Every structure is written in C-alpha cells, then in structure tokens.
Amino acid sequence: MSSKDEEQPDPRETSLHPRHREQLLGHENAERHLLEAYQSGRFHHGWLITGPRGIGKATLAYRLARYLLRYPDHETAPKGTMAVPADDVVAAQISARSHPDLLVLQRELDKGKLKAGITVDASRKAAKFFGKTAGAGGWRIAIVDVADEMNGAAANSLLKTLEEPPERSLLILVCHERGRLLPTIRSRCIELALQPVTEEETLSALDLLPDDLGKQAIPHAKFSGGRPGLAIALAETGAGPIFERFSTAMETGRLDMKTRIAIANSLHGRGTDDRFSVFCSLLDSWIASAAVKAARLSGALEQGHALANAHQTIWHSIQETNALNLDRRLTILQAFDLIEKARKA
Fold first, then answer.
1. Terminus of the chain with fewer CB atoms < 10 Å: N or C?
2. What DSSP character marks residue 118?
3. 3 state SS of 162
C-alpha cells in the first residue's frame, strides 16, 4: 500500500465505532452465556456472533475482547458483568487500536475505497498473529468484522487457524448472514445468535449517543427493526428518506418509473458509497421479509418462491456492483424490475 493510500481516511473510523462503546443494551442473555462459559475454565477458541446488521454484534465482540484482555485469569475475573471502564488502560489501548494482543480483520482500503471483501492476505495475518506469544502473557484475540465478507481463499486460510488453535487464542467472528459462511467454519465455532432489540431498547441506545446524532436517528428507528446501528446509519448517510420513499411506494403499489429513477439517482455518484450500502442492506431485509410473508399466505406460495429467487439474484448483483464498480443506478433499477415481476407471480 502506498503512502498516499495510507493517508486516505477510513470511513468506518468515527466516534461511534463499536470499539469505543462502553454500553450494550438488549443482549444481557448473550453476555451472561459468555461469562458462564469463561468462568467454567473451558472457554472455546472460536465464537460466531450472528444476527442482523446493526444490532450490536461488533459491540459485543469488542466488549468480550476488553474483558478477556483485562482479566486473563477466569478465576479472578468479575462474574456479574463484562464491563471494563473506559479509563482502564486496556480499554484505552483497544479504543486507540494499539493493544498488542488484539487483531482486527476487516476489509482494507484500496485507493481510498474499501475493498469488496476480506482478502486472503488479511486472513493470513491471523496465522502470523497467533504464532506469537501474547505481549501481556494472557490471551491473543482476533475479531473478524465481518466474517461473511471473506472471499473463499480468506475463509480457507482462517479455517486452518480454527482447526489448530494455539493455546489461549480466541477468534471472534462477527457475521450478518451465517449461511454465507463455510459450513466447516460454522462447525468449529460456538454460535451466539443475537436478536433485534425492543423498540424501547433501540430508543435508549440512540439516546446515549453524543451530540444530536441520536435525535436525528430516532425518526428512522421504525425502519431499523430493532437495530440501533442501522437507525444511526440511516441518519448519517441520508438513506432513511430514500428508503421511506421506496417503502411507501411498495405499500401503495405505485413504484412508478419516476420514483424508481429518483431513488436510483440518489444512490449514485461521488460520496454515496455508504448511502448505497445502507439502502441495499434495508432492501435486502425487505425482500427477505416479503418472501417469508408471501410464502405463509394461502395461495401466494409461488410469489414467495419468486421473491426468494429475486432476493438471491439481487444480493449477488449488489455484490458484483461493489466488487467491479458497476453502475449503481442500473443495479437498483434492475432490482426494482425483479421485485415487481416476483410480486406478480
């Protein structure tokens, strides 16, 4: 990577990054499960945290990493909570990305843009990382955020580490769509499935945000489906009003060409990468939900199958668009065509 690329700002680096978050609302059972597993003295080397985007999976992953790095001895670790104060040296190091025993695998920047997926070069860092002795004499932890963005070579590389884990090593895989992971990776991890939080917990999480961002995100909570992170992204990127226009059009049955083109245009152009990503995430969830609803309705099974097929086709199209930098407007317009055809099945 050139020095010019290194100077490019990482769009994920904001004050709201999960490694900075002290509190986690709505996942008390998951935290209790992790605490009990750790205190048993037989903590598994691979954990797969699954669930929809924006519900707090990465926040829980960093929370677990802080706790283990701060309390490497399970016998003396606090038993009631995984909370570590923000002013603790371990928490501060993790927040500053300077803790020697924590590795984060994620999509890398290339010429100022995030790569389409996590590459094998990034994944191989885990093998080298776990081959070293822990700097603080405790755990060595790697967080993969997110695991379903690994390409095939990266996934196979990581699998080798999961198959032969060094002592006191931990892999935490954050995953939005578990079905897109290799079955062999899933089988070597303990899965911790998180569910969307309640509306009250969503609003409470947004109320904890600094400045006015929480207030800006609250109107979008209705589209978040119990995913505070998604409500924030809708406010930050401007994708909220765009998706609301799409949702309203689908409810009234009038997704006319003028509306389609206006939406597609608003997701195309310089500075709209995150907006496109967030809109597509909501669109993906909307199609999946529509497919399930149709399949459950009497006489609408064929429509359910058609929507399920459209869901897969559109997801692959979006992935290809991101990977090859294709025309987003065309991708969105084609997605709308597929949805309309499926609804008429």
1. N
2. B
3. helix
Query: What is the token pair recorded at 318?
Result: 């979006």
222, two tokens: 């209705």
Q: Which tokens go with 225?
A: 């489906």
The full set of domain ranges for the chain reads 3-193, 238-343
Residue range 146-165, pLDDT digits in tens: 999 999 999 999 999 999 99
**Order of strands across the sheet that contains 169-175:** 102-105, 140-145, 169-175, 46-50, 190-193
Cis check for the bond before 146: say yes or no (omega within 30 of 0).
yes
**61 three-class SS:** helix
Tokens of 252: 């009234």
CB 152: neighbour CB atoms within 10 A?
Answer: 10
> Which pLDDT does position 7 carry in this prediction?
55
How many Cα atoms sit within 13 Å of 328 on the Cβ side? 21
**Residue ranges with strand state E in the chain:** 46-50, 102-105, 109-110, 113-114, 140-145, 169-175, 190-193
Q: Are 203 and 221 in contact (CB under 8 A)?
A: yes
- Say whether 241 sits in a helix, a strand or coil: helix
Whether the CB-CB separation of 338 and 310 falls below 8 Å is answered with yes
pLDDT digits (tens, 9 = 90+) for 288-342: 999 999 988 877 889 999 999 999 999 999 988 987 889 999 999 999 999 999 9
Question: Can you give the pLDDT at residue 136?
Answer: 66
Helix (H, G, I), strand (E, B) or coil at 150: strand
pTM: 0.80
Q: Which residues 6+ apart lie within 8 Å of 30 measured at CB?
A: 49, 60, 192, 194
The predicted structure's pLDDT at residue 110: 80
Q: What angle do CA 26, 75, 165 make, to 5 degrees?
A: 80
Average pLDDT, the chain: 90
d(CA 160, CA 308) in angstroms, rounded, equals 33
Residue whose entry in the numeric block shows the structure tokens 């080298």: 128
CATH 3.40.50.12780 fits 3-193, yes or no: no
Higher pLDDT among residues 107 and 67, named by residue? 67
Q: Give the residue from 89, 82, 87 showing the smallest Cα distance to 59.
A: 82
State yes or no: pLDDT of 11 exceeds 90. no
